[in-house]
Amino acid sequence: MDFIVELPESRGNTVILTVIDRFSKMGHYVPLRKLPSAAELVPIFITNVVRIHGIPLGIVSDRGTQFVSRFWRGFCKNVGIDLSFSSAYHPQTNGAAERANQNIEKYLRCFISERQDNWSDLLPWAEYALNSAVSEATGHSPFFTVYGFDPPVLPATFPDTTIPALDEHLASLTETWGRVKQALEDSSVVQKTKADRHRRPAPVYQVGDRVWLSSRNIKLLVPSMKLAPRYIGPYRILRRLNPVSYALALPPHIRIHNVFHVSLLKPLLCNRYTRARAPPPPVSVEGEEEFEVEAILDARISRGSYSTWLTGWATVQRIALGSRLLRSMLLGW
């Protein structure tokens, strides 16, 4: 399940609810006036999904406020629906709905008017066309997989013919179901093989390990993201949800979901640039706590004035090294 939002108003509708069956690839696209709350989503779901197909065994969605709310969780728990959520910044987890969104947008883009205000009228025909098209994964159209026959391409009445026996119809459905299942498994293997050509084996982390977190999708409080660090942290791993998802112990000021795909993590490798121990304690100089300076690494003249640079450099290092010791050492040098 997913939403397509921020669409131009069409008959009062601005949102599309996308629901895709993972087995048959059949999709339902429901126009909505606005992004619904969790309480509003339940009757919409019952009318457009449960009424037609029954109660699903599980639902995969992103972490939108509607899907993670206590109301929606409580409803699904009571009717026996297993909820699964995509990990942070990894939409491939809900790839079926994401791909369906692209397909429906592509269809509407081809037939919509210049004012873009008639997409609600085109939506039923778009759903009809997509559910009648043969899926590359299954080898059949979603309509045929669910109902056992292909709908007519153009609206027409069925000719009066002899109706097959019930057992023959059930046998045909069983055979179709088996062929579709085998085609899905074969397609999944082929797709995984192609995807693995450009992938490296994911590292395995244990609870308590420290890892770096990619800042690609995190808005940092810096003037420019071009010069921002590519990874932040390191953060400790709290638990392993599955082979490719981990929960991190994030600081309170990072208010995002703490479950991330393994592709966004990088192991912490200790080297000469990694601080493996705490800094030494300060020393007392004339009743004040200051840090001893071990060595002066470098010095330079800025804009023809050495003293100006010296004062500024000493001020910057005041907390880390101690301004009084630093100034006396540099002036003596």
TrEMBL record:
One of its GO terms (biological process) is DNA integration. InterPro entries: Chromo-like_dom_sf (IPR016197), Integrase_cat-core (IPR001584), Retrovirus_Pol_polyprotein (IPR050951), RNaseH-like_sf (IPR012337), RNaseH_sf (IPR036397), SH3_Tf2-1 (IPR056924). Gene3D superfamilies: Ribonuclease H-like superfamily/Ribonuclease H. This is Integrase catalytic domain-containing protein. It comes from Leptobrachium leishanense (Leishan spiny toad). GO terms for molecular function: nucleic acid binding. Residues 1-150 form the Integrase catalytic domain.
